[in-house]
Design goal:
- Among the domains are: 71 residues, no CATH class; 40 residues, Laminin (Ribbon); 78 residues, no CATH class; 55 residues, no CATH class.
- Helix content is 6%, strand content 39%.
- It is built from five helices and 60 strands.
- The longest helix is centred in the C-terminal third of the chain and has 16 residues.
- The protein has 655 residues and is mainly beta.
Length: 655
């Protein structure tokens, strides 16, 4: 700073002597790197920018290359603060804070003791509490077990059962029950049972009526229920009307009295066959109290007097072709088959049948068949012809199809009965919808929902249901400026699209499109027509750029120029230069006409000193000279001032 003030005072003292012609002493800047130039009293003052400083034994004119490192505040934990044993120190807002680490508790300024619960000494689902330096494990409320191994949830805690009920666990479920001597709903309330003291007699039963015990004899027992109940089996059953109950050991049996019959458990009535009033060999049957006398099989006569034995009792007593009827062996065909029927006896049975060609009930009457009955096997919609010995021949009616013995039907009743490509005609037959008469001449037919959909082929015209036709078949069917395209006479220069290239012209000649480039254009007319290029072929020299232009008479002429960074005659050759900008040259050089030139070459006036600074020439007069350094410098007249100035400048340069 002392040197900077000396420079400022020196410049103010000899301001009139130098007589500099610059209006801004900071342009160009005389200061070094990382500095700022300030004007004060028409003098340039160099200061380092924030964060930078000049080198030792140097000044700001030479620059400030040293970056100032920010100072770090001291860590308060590294000072005299001393935390307790096992404690940790943490810096917070410039202050030291003592804390116990994780798993430790206590006063961090004195001592931190390890939390015994941090080692997890307890079992599964157990709780750990710190008591001094010991860990105490316990099961939480509603759990039980060894807390150092495992705590299991107890479903009986809290007790879910009713009043006076007992709770027992089954797995993770609580089961409630009433204790001995109690009854009721264990999930609501258990009440004391008065029958639990057995107040009743032998074999008696006790019932709980609130808080009172009521004794009674069970079914089948009788006696004093408060003393003894004796077994009485006839008390357990109820015999029928007129029946008697007889005890047999421990069981009771109902019986009808002698001379009576019936179901003793329902009713007993008098037996009409006692005493027996029927004749010899006759059998007596009781009919609601009255005797019914009958002769047994093989006997006949008066059952109330005497029954006599006959020829037979059953069919086996007769031959295989006869039957036993009214105790006589007779022919079964005499009384079984009807008029006109055939009869055969097989194992005492008459088999009646109507002869061939007849019908009817063989057990009543057989008659000859009618044609309708002979043709009965034929199905519906059939014709029947009877031939030979009443033999029917069945056939389907016209326009009907099928099995004549089952029934014949039409092939179709409506279009939906046919295939997708068919329809049902007036004869009820399925026919193809796209037959020869469905569409017009040259038309295409497509079946759609049992109907013919007619369309003209591509590029054809007309009504597809009458006739489809074309506009042309060949080019010769059209005028000379048209062609046959898609069976129509059209302009080939526009249909389907122009065959010519961009900006080209199209003309039709003899049915064909002819493409050409317009006047003033060139190129392939079938690809691209462009304006005539003045630069093709390139009239310029090597590496030169050609651009269309005009001369002084407005005549089109090519203009040749060397590209940026190149030098030379554009009509002959362009070669790369040394530079394009000042940055491509050294600090004491500048780029002029693509060459690096010394900035101090002929830049300053006579006797002036030139110093190159960032590609710029800085001119100044020597210390013993004055004047305009850009024009001329001349010696000073005052020798003392010149000597003093020389000494000061020398001193500044040495510093």
């Amino acid at each position: 700073m002392r040197k900077l003030l000396f420079i400022v005072l020196f410049c103010l003292q000899y301001k009139e002597t130098f007589q500099l012609s610059y209006s801004d002493p900071c342009y160009p800047t005389p200061c070094g790197v990382n500095t700022q130039c300030h004007v004060q009293n028409e003098a340039a003052i160099c200061r380092c920018i924030s964060g930078y400083n000049h080198a030792p034994n140097s000044n700001t004119i030479e620059g400030c290359p040293i970056k100032i490192r920010p100072t770090t505040p001291p860590d308060p934990c590294h000072s005299t603060v001393q935390c307790g044993i096992n404690a940790e120190c943490r810096s917070s807002g410039g202050k030291a804070v003592c804390e116990c680490p994780s798993g430790y508790t206590g006063n961090a300024l004195v001592r931190c003791n390890q939390d015994p619960c941090s080692l997890r000494p307890c079992g599964i689902q157990a709780e750990c509490s710190n008591r001094g330096s010991q860990a105490v494990c316990s099961c939480p409320h509603g759990f039980q077990g060894d807390p150092y191994i495992r705590c299991i949830e107890n479903p009986c805690l809290p007790n879910p059962c009713g009043q006076d009920a007992l709770c027992s666990k089954n797995g993770n479920r609580a089961i409630c029950s009433c204790p001995s001597g109690y009854t009721g709903d264990p999930y609501r309330s258990c009440n004391r049972d008065p029958c639990s003291t057995s107040p009743c007699g032998v074999q008696a039963q006790c019932q709980n009526h609130g808080s009172r015990a009521v004794c009674s004899c069970p079914a089948g027992y009788s006696g004093d229920p408060y003393v003894r109940c004796n077994y009485a089996p006839c008390k357990l059953i109820s015999c029928g009307q007129g029946a008697d109950c007889v005890e047999s050991g421990s069981s009771a049996v109902c019986k009808c009295p002698h001379g009576y019959k019936g179901d003793p458990y329902v009713s007993c009535r008098k037996d009409g066959c006692i005493p027996n009033v029927c004749g010899v060999y006759a059998t007596c049957t009781d009919n609601y109290g009255r005797p019914d006398c009958q002769c047994p099989p093989g006997f006949q006569g008066d059952p109330y007097r005497q029954c006599i034995r006959g020829d037979c009792d059953e069919n086996s007593d007769c031959g295989p072709y006869r039957i036993c009827k009214n105790y006589k062996c007779v022919d079964p065909c005499l009384t079984t088959c009807g008029v006109g029927s055939d009869c055969q006896v097989r194992n005492h049975v008459a088999i009646c049948t109507c002869p061939h060609g007849t019908t009817g009930d063989p057990f009543a009457h057989c008659r000859h068949l009618t044609n309708a009955e002979i043709c009965a096997p034929c199905g519906q919609n059939t014709n029947c012809q009877v031939v030979g010995t009443n033999k029917p021949i069945c056939s389907c009616k016209p326009n009907f199809f099928g099995d004549p013995l089952i029934g014949c039907t039409r092939e179709c009743q409506q279009d939906s009965d046919c295939g997708y490509t068919q329809k049902c005609d007036i004869k009820y037959r399925c026919v193809n919808v796209c037959d020869s008469t469905a569409c017009g001449r040259n038309a295409n037919c497509r079946p759609v929902n049992h109907r013919a959909e007619c369309t003209c082929p591509q590029y054809y015209q007309g009504n597809p249901y009458t006739s489809c036709y074309t506009g042309c078949i060949s080019h010769y069917d059209c005028n000379g400026n048209q062609a046959c395209i898609k069976l129509e006479c059209q302009d080939p220069c526009h249909v389907p699209s122009s065959p010519c290239g961009h900006a080209a012209q199209c003309q039709v000649s003899n049915h064909k499109p002819i493409c050409s480039c317009p006047k003033g254009y060139t190129g392939d007319p079938y690809v691209l027509c462009r304006l005539e290029d003045q630069c093709s072929p390139n009239p310029c020299g090597r590496n030169a750029i050609c651009q269309p232009g005009h001369d002084q008479y407005s005549t089109k002429r090519p203009v040749c120029t060397c590209p940026r960074g190149y030098i030379g005659d554009a009509l002959v050759s362009c070669s790369p230069g040394e530079c394009e900008r000042d940055g491509d040259c050294r600090q004491d050089e500048a780029c002029k006409n693509n060459y690096c030139r010394q900035v101090c070459s002929s830049a300053c006036g006579r006797y002036a000193i030139c110093k190159a600074l960032s590609h710029v020439a800085v001119c100044s007069c020597p210390s013993t000279y004055s004047g305009d350094p850009l024009v001329s410098c001349y010696p000073k007249n005052n020798r003392k001032k010149r000597e003093s100035l020389t000494q000061n400048v020398t001193s500044i340069a040495e510093n």
